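Purpose: get a first structural picture of the assembly so the mutagenesis plan has something to point at.
Setup: four entries, given in the order below. No constraints added.
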Amino acid sequence: MDMTETFKALSNPTRLQILMWLKDPEANFPEQGGHPGVPDELKGGVCVGSIRDKAGISQSTASQYLDVLQRCGLLLSERHGKWTYFRRNEEAIAELAEFVGGEL
Amino acid sequence: MDMTETFKALSNPTRLQILMWLKDPEANFPEQGGHPGVPDELKGGVCVGSIRDKAGISQSTASQYLDVLQRCGLLLSERHGKWTYFRRNEEAIAELAEFVGGEL
DNA sequence: ACATCATATCGTAATACTGCGATATGTCAG
DNA sequence: CTGACATATCGCAGTATTACGATATGATGT
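Result (structure tokens, whole complex):
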């Protein structure tokens, strides 16, 4: 895990906000869940469009931001049908917390 | 404390390294302490020149990097005579750790 | 196959960061 | 006051980031 890349990803206010919104997807993205045939294991995952709407950014920017957060490991993505669901990678976030709380 | 600014400061490998070196100043900057008339309360503070040498960067870059780390609160500085001594702001670092370990 | 919807990727102009040398400011010794 | 030293600030060229619209890819339903 490249800490420098991770900090860079978090240095953008919108990306930081997205990561925090994803702590409580059901509260922050209530419209999520209306997708046809979404299996239970994707509960907690949020699609790009919902994040785009909530953050008030363009579709391409939303996709790019989510990619940045995924590349550094903070988010996990899974495509299901037309949608790509993003959710927090709690392991990576815990690793980051350990680093900041210990080695830093 | 602006977390976004703090993460940006840490997104540079050299700045991150400097902050970690300052965890153990006596081990990482053994030449520090040869300054005339340095009072005890500055023990643990390291001057710009020492950091410049250790990091292998120019004097202006060292000064600028330390300024970035100080502006976001991660470092504290104190001028004494010709030298400016920088040391970690453990309170701010603890606050950051709490944020990453809790709110993030 | 085709139209539609969701997302990804490309190309871009504006803006910010990087790291340096040159120069200015501040401090001490003589 | 002057010279030497430590640090701060300025100006700059190279590079990266930002955020977008346009376009491409991929999936679904008819």
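The helical segments of chain B are 3-10, 13-21, 25-28, 48-55, 59-71, 90-103.
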